[in-house]
Amino acid sequence: MPPLVLITGPEGVLAERALAAMVALAREADPEAEKITVRATAYEPGVLALHASPSLFGGSKVVVAEDVDEASDDLVTDLLHYIAAPAPDLMLVVMHKSGVRGKKVLDSMKAAGARVIECPAIKNDRDKTDFVTHEFRRQGRRGTPEAVHALVEALGKDIRELAAACSQLVADTEGVIDDRVVETYHGGKVEATGFRVADAAIAGQTGEALRLLRHAIASGIDPVPIVAVLASQLRTLVKVGSAGRGSSAAVAKQVGLAPWQVDKARRAVGGWDGPSLGTAIQAVAAADVEVKGGGRDPVFAVERAVLAITGARAAARRS
Q1: Which of residues 118, 138, 165 is at a domain's end?
Q2: Which range marks the domain in which residue 229 is found?
Q3: Which of 129, 180, 187, 260 counts the most CB atoms within 10 A of its CB?
Q4: Chain-centre distance of CA 218, in angstroms?
Q5: What is the pLDDT of residue 19?
Q6: The total number of structural domains that make up the chain
């Protein structure tokens, strides 16, 4: 097993998996390997040396130093001292999310030849799409692009929930995972409902948009996240519409979206022009104020925003 392991980056799900993999690796060599966690926020001088000392009964250890980005000077000092002379039969795992605190420890770990595992933040929809695709592949399954898109739209705010949903779909279904399966399991999520309302509104489908909206409200969904999705989708049209005529992949990289989102926005933006998009965005901004307490009737506010969007699109098509 590697004597020094550095897990760095802010994405908690990836960091937890990396740690679990390292502990499993240690226990392949020694099934009785003991895992000991040292928490930076509660560290006392000398604790690391105490845990690193050989046990009277022998056996290997995995000592995990958590949150080293919040480490006190005492922990940094003890870690630097240990890294200079690692103990046999012990794996030291240093976990560092981000920032300059504890950077000396990171530099020393790398200089000492530590195994480095990067856990970068999963922020934009392109990252989330890649994450879901990999999740299915990692578990021996394939999800169609439409299924991946639907899952990101339904659960994209929470990476941990995205990971759990992938595992659930793999466990509960067989064969290729498609968008119908995702709809069955997650179609009622707030984000998914908001996207369906937004898609219909942006396409100019007034009746369908209002039907979906009223069904969502009747199901107990708050207007606030629906307005947020309307705003997000309109911003996406603006970004893609002003990004030029490059490939979907190139534009996606430029504006921080997934290629499928660029393709979807390109299909939708053809029915719009600059003034109509401006009108729609202003209407949604006004609705955002009203649904957050600035108006008397949040439901009426979001309905009015939907009507303004479809009306703006109709005006653009007439011009």
Answers
A1: 118
A2: 195-318
A3: 129
A4: 29
A5: 97
A6: 3
